[in-house]
Amino acid sequence: MNVECRMRMALIVLLAAAVGGPALCAEQAAAAWQPSRGHEQIPIWSGTVPDARPVDGPEVAGTVVDADGHPNLIGGRPWTYVDHVSQPTMTIYAPQGRNSGVAMLVFPGGGYNVLAIDHEGSEVCDWLTSRRITCVLLKYRVPCAKAGPYRDCPTALQDAQRTMGLVRLRAAQWHIDPRKIGVLGFSAGGHMVAALSTHFDNRVYPPVDAADKESCRPDFAIALYPGHLAADKDGALNPDITITSRTPATFLLQAADDPVDSVENSLVYYSALQKAGVPAEIHVYATGGHGFALRPTGSPVSRWPQLVETWLETIGIVSK
User: Fold this and answer.
1) What is the CATH number of the domain that holds 308?
2) Mean pLDDT across the stretch 203-223?
3) In this structure, is residue 121 part of a structural domain?
């Protein structure tokens, strides 16, 4: 393995640690990620990307492998990371069959270092579209320059706010109900869900066009094994996250044995939602680890999609 690959290993190791071993980029890295045929990536910034920073090389996508060069498996299958994203995009996945009018922005995790683009991204879109929901997969900028004691990612929030505005602006074109657009994220993407849910009153970048006049408040929010939300293990919420009665209804799920992001992240966020009078539902499983996403792992936590579907019915987003 070359020196460059060893240096880049640090960007992926957080995810791989959650599923059983160190990860290497090795010779698995390839060209920039592309969605499957029939799905177009759309740049979310029409001109200069705000707060752009140099990245060390072009965008790459590749299979995560272990120290011996074998694919690092989740649910028995390899998974793909994306790195060096400087031009964020959104990819629209249209619903299968009758369109419910509901849309969901999906934020893959990756510690704000890389993006777990398939099992926490495109595979999630396949599930959502099978449930008649439009999926918008956000390929946000990574790695980012993390800010503050809680290692927030301001550029990821910029990309999320911008994408929500664009989806609302084009809602009629994509047959979306602009009052039924939610967000779903995993790990660092789960933190993005909370960040967007609590930072929607003001754009964190200079407005560009009509999309930035649209509300970027999600109508509902789903955060799975989120990080960056707990200030400590004594029940304190990250002070950068300010919950009010306008924070959207939220679904939280995490495993108590999560080795990457402590379950305290979900617990303190749920408690704060309750105190603010925000409708919220939380599911904590004894086992399940981190990074499982939709793939069956043999743990009961893998049944979470059914819980989400029921919750969406309960809050009136989808019909029974």
Assistant:
1) 3.40.50.1820
2) 97
3) yes
